[in-house]
Amino acid sequence: MRAPFPHWGAGRPRPAALEIPCDVLDSEGRPALPAPLETAPEHPLPEELSRAGRLLEKARRPVIWAGGGVIRAGASNALTRLAERLQSPVFTTTLGKGAVPEDHPLSGGNTLLHPAGRAYLETCDLMLAVGTRFKEIETERWRLKLPEQLIHIDIDPAEIGRNYGVSAAVVGHARPALEGLLELCRGVAPSRDRVREVKELRGRIWDECRKRAAGAVELVECLRAALPRESTLVCDLTAAATWCHHLLEVYQPGGFHSPWGFCTLGFGLPAAIGAKLARPRRPVVLLSGDGGFLFNCQELATAVECGLPLVMVVFNDKGYGVLRPQQMARYGRTHAADLAGPDFTALAKAFGAAALRVERLEDLSRNLSEALRQPGPCLVEVTAPVPWPPIETTAGMFAQADVSTR
Questions:
Q1: How far is residue 363's CA from residue 225's CA, in Å, rounded to a whole number?
Q2: Could you tell me the CA-to-CA distances from 334 to 66, 90, 188, 325 in Å, in that order?
Q3: Degrees (nearest 5) of the Cα angle 99, 102, 108?
Q4: What kind and span of H or E run contains 107?
Q5: What does each C-alpha distance from 404 to 83, 215, 284, 367 come to in angstroms?
């Protein structure tokens, strides 16, 4: 029975299934339980690291782009130390949020699709990309212009060079790869301190977002004011959560979860329950829309049964709010985008959970803080209008004015 498990634990994580025949399930015996399996990280080839190290030594203005592979590999500490040694700003993908604390002086956040982020990227001469596949939505359909030199570290060799040409490929586990680069770059002297650049860039992006989408910034500020630093935020597919992808700071690996690759509506509640069970001492907050929450609302019973102090924030606009503007833009009308949903506070109480309702956005922080003090699951229904992103691309969120809708 041990044979499949090393294979499952190697390479890029993918779904796996184990089928057990019925005659085996019906049999009797005294099985011997083996010790827990530990798989060694896959180390990159020394020559690949050497080439990458030489490019980093020559770079005058390097930049780092961190994806979810950094978090899964437990490589955040090595990444932060390398960034500090190189004085290199660190940007992340959506799933890479928390790879470095987003209040670190060198953290640029998930902002490369903002016009100011793009302009800053054009001043850099080398990118070190770690644990990211350069997916369509993160690169605005591969229109994001990268620096001339690109080092790509990834555990899956099929991903390297598939969407962007590389100057150096490093195939392997992110942690030993970054630790190896730390040793190779021991004598690198950065040409300048870039902390001020990053601070100015973040400030400019924040100010421009406030001008263009004041409601989005207010929402993020309300959430950040109430969330403890060590919180885990789980996002379903809802417009309010999409703004958090870019503007809400995350301070530790594993502090942010989203179905951003698969875009699976209804992911949020089961994932939040799993996150709370995995790390029970961390506050866990779910952001969901009414449509997404109804996919798996029956899991309220699981949260109550397990007595989980879990906070579920449900933004109720009585429909599929992301689909409405998409349909209007394409067809000039909507179809089957409205929902006759329940009273969510009454629904939560029917399952035995606590519940609160927020009718004004400025009341969100106070109610969220109260929900976090509850001994068991608590649902916060937000009926206040929330800011919706523009239609087609994530980049459009930064480029167009805010639109609030119910």
A1: 12
A2: 38, 41, 57, 8
A3: 95
A4: strand 107-109
A5: 38, 8, 27, 22
Quote the CA–CA distance of 31 and 391 in Å, as a whole number: 56
Which stretches of 258-385 are assigned E, i.e. beta strand? 284-289, 310-315, 354-358, 378-382
Helices 214-226, 195-212: axis angle to 10 degrees equals 120
> 26: exposed, middle or buried (C-beta count within 10 Å: 0-12, 13-18, 19+)?
exposed
Instruction: State the pairing for strand pair 62-66/168-171.
Output: unpaired
pTM score, whole prediction = 0.89
pLDDT in tens, the chain (406 residues): 556 676 776 777 777 888 889 998 898 888 888 777 777 778 999 999 999 999 999 999 999 999 999 999 999 999 999 999 999 999 999 999 999 999 999 999 999 999 999 999 999 999 999 999 999 989 999 999 999 999 999 999 999 999 999 999 999 999 999 999 999 998 777 667 899 999 999 999 999 988 888 888 999 999 999 999 999 999 998 888 888 999 999 999 999 999 987 778 999 999 999 999 999 999 999 999 999 999 999 999 999 999 999 999 999 999 888 888 888 888 999 999 888 889 999 999 999 999 999 999 899 999 999 999 999 999 999 998 876 654 344 555 565 434 332 2
Collect all residues with Cβ–Cβ distance below 8 Å to 27 and sequence separation of at least 6.
Answer: none
Instruction: Dig out the tokens for 398 from the structure.
Output: 């930064």
